[in-house]
C-alpha cells in the first residue's frame, strides 16, 4: 500500500482498527511524490490501473489483470 505524505489521512489507531487487521499484514509505504513513485513503478514494468466513478462498470476482481499491477484508489470524484 502506498500513501502520500500530504493529503492523506494518517495511519492512526482508529484506521488500523478499521482495516480489520490488513494494516498489520500489508507493507505500507509513504511517498513524498506520488508521480515519481508511479513513474518508478512503470519503469519496473507495473501496469497502473485507476478507479473512476464514471467508468464502465466492471468488477475489479473479475477483470483479467497483469500480475505486476498497481491499482489507484481515491479522489474518484475529481
Offer a concise description of the structure:
With 78 residues, this protein is of the alpha/beta class. It is built from 3 helices and 4 strands. The model has no long low-confidence stretch (mean pLDDT 83).
Supply database-style keywords.
alpha/beta
How is this structure best described in words?
The chain has 78 residues and is α/β, with parallel strands linked by helices. It has helices at 13-18, 22-25, 34-43; strands at residues 2-4, 29-31, 47-50, 69-72. The strands form 2 sheets. A two-stranded parallel sheet has the order 1-2. A two-stranded parallel ribbon has the order 3-4. The model has no long low-confidence stretch (mean pLDDT 83).
Topology:
Elements: E1 2-4, H1 13-18, H2 22-25, E2 29-31, H3 34-43, E3 47-50, E4 69-72
Low-confidence stretches: none
From the spread of the alpha carbons, the general shape counts as: globular
Count of individual beta strands: 4
Give the strand order of the largest sheet, numbering strands 1, 2, ... along the chain. Answer: 1-2
Order of helical and strand elements: EHHEHEE
Report helical residue fraction: 25-40%
Biggest sheet statistics: 2 strands, parallel
